[in-house]
Automatic annotation (TrEMBL):
Protein's name according to its UniProt entry: Glycosyltransferase family 39 protein
UniProt keywords, alphabetically: Cell membrane, Glycosyltransferase, Membrane, Transferase, Transmembrane, Transmembrane helix
InterPro entries assigned: LipidA_mod_glycosyltrf_83, RgtA/B/C-like
Subcellular location(s) per record: Cell membrane
Topology with respect to the bilayer: Multi-pass membrane protein
Top-level taxon in the UniProt lineage: Bacteria
Taxonomic lineage: Bacteria, Pseudomonadati, Bacteroidota, Flavobacteriia, Flavobacteriales
All copies of domain Glycosyltransferase RgtA/B/C/D-like, residue ranges: 44-199
Location (main, coarse): membrane
Amino acid sequence: MLTFGVQYLSVSIMEARNFITAREMLTDGNWLLTTMNGEARYEKPPLPTWLAAFFGMIFGIKNLLAIRFPAIIFIAITGVFTYLLSNKLLNNKNHSLINALIVVTSFYVIGISIEAPWDIFTHGFMLMAIYFLFQYLQGTPNNFKAILIAGLFLGCSILCKGPVSFYALLLPFLIAYGVVFKFTAIKKQILPLLAFLIIGLIVGGWWYLYVRVNDPATFTAIAERETGNWSSYNIRPFYYYWSFFTQSGIWTIPAFISLIYPYLKRRVSNTKAYRFSFIWTIAAVILLSLIPEKKSRYLMPVLIPLAINTGFYIEYLIRCFKDLKDKRETIPVYFNFGLIALIGLAFPIVGYLFLGEKLSGYKFPYAIASITLVLLGVLIFVQLKLKNMEKVFYLTIFFFAALLISGLPLSTALINNNYKPISNLKEDTKKEAINVYGFNYISPEMIWQFGDKIPNITQEDGTINFPDEPVFGMLANGISPEHQELLLSKYHIEKVATYDLNTSAKDSKSYRGRLVNTYYILTKK
């Protein structure tokens, strides 16, 4: 679903940070004391970056599909272990497959792999840990193999993004398990559960200890800054996450209905399992709401239990929709899936109007996308009329996959004329034997596309460390009058080019000034 078009998407700021660090692992050997643009980068643990570097080592660090492939693999792993956990919970392969397909087609499960590449890894590993922990809790007390594997995956999750998934995914799971299944043999389970935690802390904590011992000052400063952000950065009200179900994208309406517990509890095929997924979902949202710092992407782990919860509603529709007479039950179904079908039918017209003249070089992918989506739209409408919800569901899955496969290549047609990449600058300056430095802020996306480190000559206290070279290149994101006067007193300044990595127009709300840098050549007077 993703390998056909993910390389067409622009590199996000979080991705760029990860990829730069992976590149410097390969070029500078900074595998443990990780760096970004030559400076310490300890904000995030290194496991996802090691995976990106490994694929970059094999297929080339500039190969976007290759270094994004580990994240794609973990989307698949999230689907696989949602299926396996659901099957342990339900003992129903068809229902479990529904849950798995919902999770891998949920909007933010896909989006998080691009927007914040660490998240899909930390939650993917934690879901694997939960699966084996669930096996232990539901099996025999002597099942130490399950505890050992669960502890290993817990540690891998910590080695991806610290204790984030422990709080956002594991703790809500344990709350839900305790409420629904009870810890009936807790006295016998205390030592294995302690072993689970200890193994996880050892596997996940050794890197933190290594950095703390080898670079204590930098590690402490970064840890204090990161901890401070939890209570002083991106502060949002408690109810900020209340629309969390919308993050599931095409499943927004089914997800919302699945959360109406009094309505669905009498209709599901397994009340106990439904209560478990419901409590797991709500507990995760409440726990995340307690933290002052809030971002939409932090909701991604909620989509895992929410997919299981939504699966109960979809399974109910597959069983009973043909017999439903109450319009209060049928209208939301017709609206949700009818809207998806309508998008398919409208795609050729909307695509033509939206892309206009830009379609001239994209006629073939546009035609393929239009034919595929229109056909699927028609089939969804036909099956809706026949009230065959099983086919409607699977056609919706195919629709989502087709939209990504055929639609992502068309995204390059949306790139605005102001877009000017910096990818050739490194080669040009190498021919001229000129080193390039940064002045003020240089975005990670710019550094990544440049292909090498861009040392910054401006320090945090505002002072400037001028290079020794008589001639050097300089990228700047704006120069104040004071700094311009200082530079002119020492150098002849030649403005060479302006690089703009924005794919949207300058009058667009999504246009970012930080993605614009002017390149100068400075010659000492």
